[in-house]
Amino acid sequence: MDELISRLLAHDRVRAARRHIERMDARTLAVQAELSGVPAPSGAEGRRAGRAAELLREAGLGDVTLDDVGNVRGWIGPTGESGTGDGAAPVVLSAHLDTVFGPEVNVAVERRGRRLEGPGIGDNARGLAALIGIARALVEARVPLGRPALFAATVGEEGAGNLRGMRHLLNGGAPQRHPHAVIALDGAGLERIVHRALGSRRYRATYLGPGGHSWAAFGVANPANAVGRATAMLADLPAHNAPRTTCAVVRLGGGTGLNSIPQEAWLDLDLRSEEPEALGQLDGTVRLALDRAVEDENRRRAPVSAPLRLDLRLVGDRPSGVTPRSHPLVQAAMAATQALGRGHELACASTDANVPIALGIPAIALGAGGRAGDAHLPTEWYENTDGALGLIRAMLVTLAMTGVENA
Length: 407
What we know:
Elements: H1 2-10, H2 12-23, H3 25-36, H4 46-59, E1 62-66, E2 72-76, E3 91-96, E4 110-112, E5 115-117, H5 125-141, E6 149-154, H6 164-170, E7 181-185, E8 192-197, E9 199-208, E10 212-213, H7 223-235, E11 240-241, E12 244-254, E13 260-261, E14 264-273, H8 276-299, E15 309-318, E16 321-322, H9 328-339, E17 345-349, H10 354-358, E18 363-366, E19 371-373, E20 381-383, H11 387-402
Parallel strand pairs: 3-6, 3-7, 7-18, 8-17
Antiparallel strand pairs: 1-2, 2-6, 4-5, 5-20, 8-16, 8-18, 9-14, 9-15, 10-13, 11-12, 12-14, 19-20
């Protein structure tokens, strides 16, 4: 694979595409800031999707459309010019549109010295800007691809979005057959290669009871108490590090006033593991703890009062899996990282790549260059240190999978 990456770097058209990326670095950064300033909560990505579609059309992609769930799709044909995805199974290069921030959050971007600061500036405005920059470079340089490339800006990657956009893309969306490979651009960085998909299950556990006046009805089974008992039991679960498996209580709520026993109280849970079997075992343990909290509270309730019941709802389910280190896609990412003078770091994370990996499609996630911090916080920031190299690495990996004539 090192030899292939070397041939790509020496190819006239690829060299032209690299020069274009380097020359347009400031433009890529401007696109990043612009897109970051367009609100895109999960489930409400329409405005950002519309602008991303305009930019992909301006970049020269063919057949740029929005699909039924709001994903943006555009094609580069196997000639290296804009075209559709007819023919061979495509290589998919993707970046997610949505952010973790709700509509009430001000997503304006500010420059502070070398830094751009704003919610979502790294995750994932950087990935989107890189997606558009790579498309522009390949079209401008007319790189002759061996198979089509599908550029996709996806909805619903974050949180409760549950990878909705990528699921649709691969299970009834654009490709007429499973892609040859999928490369997801997610956030900043130049070393990490995510080839292990971190699986997760997310639950809302709601305890329901009769409720009543905090004095007059005291003694009835209290949903808030059950939430407290469940939270304590889950906090006491032993840690598992091989494979790493975690359970976190992430939100609590319920009740209507300071003088009322609530009729319902709830907690949200995030269960994660690198291996499906471990995640399944944790799931069973958590369900037992949630049920025990009901039983413990019901044993303490006043005679003849109504018992509590538990309503457990699955609100997110992300599959796990792995693209083996030995696979040519992972080897290409390692070789491209090394060719650009950096050391690679193989990693596990939850990204849009989870979906294709679980379907048996080779997939990885890559950072799109630069440095970033405070992800998922309003203070998120990005510095464009070697930012162009992130686009060049992703382009090289994409081309290693599509193939390039005479390379």
